[in-house]
Amino acid sequence: MTYVKICGMTRREDVERAVELGVSALGFILVPGSPRRLSLETAAELASAVPPPVFRVAVMMDPGPVEVLEVERCGAFDTIQFHGSEDPSLLSGRSLGTIKAFSVETGKDLEKTGRYGHAGLFLLDSRKKNLAAGKPFDHSLLAGKILARPFLLAGGLGPENLAPALSTVRPFGVDLNSGVESAPGVKDREKMAAALAAVKQFDRSERRDHQ
Predict the structure, then answer these.
(1) Of 47, 49, 57, 169, whose CB count within 10 A is highest?
(2) Residue 22: CB partners within 8 Å, gap ≥ 6?
(3) What's the number of domains the chain is made of?
(4) What is residue 13's predicted lDDT score, i.e. its pLDDT?
(5) Ranges for the N-(5'phosphoribosyl) anthranilate isomerase (PRAI) domain (predicted)?
(6) Mean pLDDT to the nearest integer, 42-52
(7) Which domain CATH number covers 183?
(8) pLDDT(8) > 70
(9) Average pLDDT of 80-88?
(10) Alpha helices in the chain (DSSP H)
(11) CB–CB of 167/153 below 8 Å?
């Protein structure tokens, strides 16, 4: 089953709908300047309502050690996603799972992943100034590449382009955000449902192909 993370959650009703649809993880953005940014208190309150086995991901960009400890100690999250230029040592020895995100524009950007082999997962996204560019990067850059960790594919993914992206890249999972929204931070119920249906259809076709 393809892992599906929906990021940029800001509303309880969207959290509940995503859980009903069967997502693998939900992301809560703590990055100042993001239109989907939440305070740690608000994010923790929303995340605490998410039942297992759905993973709760705190998304941070270039946090300091104290900020990371605050997230770990609040008890509301399972994973921290690091979305900046963090030193690899900051990801070591964490009490929560880790995702290291990379902005991809050229093949050289993929070379940076080699420094973070101890992360739980990688996330490959399009290059942007503020977390969400909302556009796919050139997936052909991944042709023939073997990365140190399984990765989530991100960047402008939605119901209309998930199937070809999955068929071409075959990632461990996908990260959805603006492609399932009606406005920043406001998830669209129909788009979320259509995206999950597209992933499930891909998974069914994969099983048939391997029977």
Answers:
(1) 57
(2) 4, 196
(3) 1
(4) 98
(5) 4-195
(6) 97
(7) 3.20.20.70
(8) yes
(9) 96
(10) 12-21, 40-48, 65-74, 107-111, 162-169, 189-209
(11) no
